[in-house]
Design goal:
Subunit structure: Homodimer.
Radius of gyration: 24 Å
GO molecular function, one term: steroid binding
Protein name: Sex hormone-binding globulin
CATH class of the largest domain: Mainly Beta
Strand order of the largest sheet: 22-21-20-19-26-17-30
Organism: Mola mola (Ocean sunfish)
Subcellular location: Secreted
Strand content: 35-45%
Number of helices: 3
Shape: elongated
Distance between the termini: 28 Å
CATH topology of the largest domain: Jelly Rolls
Helix content: under 10%
Largest sheet: 7 strands, antiparallel
Structural class: mainly beta
Length: about 400
Amino acid sequence: MAVFRKAVAGRLLLTLSLALLGRGAEGQGNGRGKVQVSGGATVYLGQERDVWRPLIHTTINLSDISAIKSSFQLRTFDPEGTIFYGDTKNGVDWFVLSLKDGIPLMQIFKGGVHVSVAGGAKLNDGKWHTLELSSQGKFVVLEVDGSNGLVVGMQSQEPEEVLSGELRLALGGVLIDKDKMIVQFEPQMDACVRQGSWLNLSMPWETEAEELWPCYENVRPGSYFPGTGMAIFNTSVFAFEADQGVTAELWGDFSMMDGTILSIKTPGPMFTLVANNKTKDVTVAFGEKKIDIVVTVERLQITFQTDLLRVRQDDDESKTTILSVIPVSHPGYLDTWRDGWLAVGGLLGEGEDEVGSQFLKGCLEKIRVQGRDLDLDLAVKHMSVTSHSCAA
């Protein structure tokens, strides 16, 4: 999946960054170009930045610490990403807590010993979970909702040293080279953390962000598009056989959407799927052909074949209604399909480097191409688009 990000040309990325608006600034500065944040604040970890860079961080004198114990609450639908990081000796010894496939993953490096362990229940169910991390002698313990989730034991042949100096903590990123970890994972996480209690201390945290984005009070699974940006993939990564064509599937309440749901730009005809919140229908356009259709269910399937474009809506797996069939007058279209761009939530421009507009406002519950769910964290994505959650 990482090929999605690498496949998008740098010039398009630059154009996208310049063309789409970001957010304003607010917050309390500390005189060093950074904003101070309470450790107990509610923090949205998916905020746009370098994906490995922590969103907030703090540094503590080890002499001030009486107990190595921290707790916080986590809520996410995202199966993968960085949650919490800590280190001593400026990153020589370190700890990382993340999710992978929804399951907690702890990676620790201390005294030349590298340990990785994963287990416990999946936490990406959209509910608030209380996590507590503590150091208990030779063991690092992760408790989830009051029960042991993971227990890691470490013992080195080297004599135990008395720690001194500083300890660094971070949320949403790491302060070491990612290649030092045994298990690699995608770091960006659509998640919220709140009610942090860090080593029983009340020190402020810092962030390089001009402001911290808020978390929705209630969420449901999906990708939310607020009408200010889109996510772009290179179509060459979607493997297909010419005789079977290419299929894209979209789930959501189309009557509540407004703007471009999907656009595909290739050397051949341009394809767009646009929702109109006023008329409660969607317009399918392929080249010069346009058809307005009313979608009465929440699953739409578009199949590109060598001689036609077929649009279906499904009540369930056993009942399918064909909404429209558009003949293809460009017989080599599927060959050109490999050399284009697919945008979710916006209209790709007509020029080579032009980024269009007509951004989608609404929630797509699921997006699938060639039977594979799209993870928008792996796209060139505007910072306003959330990858795994929508406001409920």
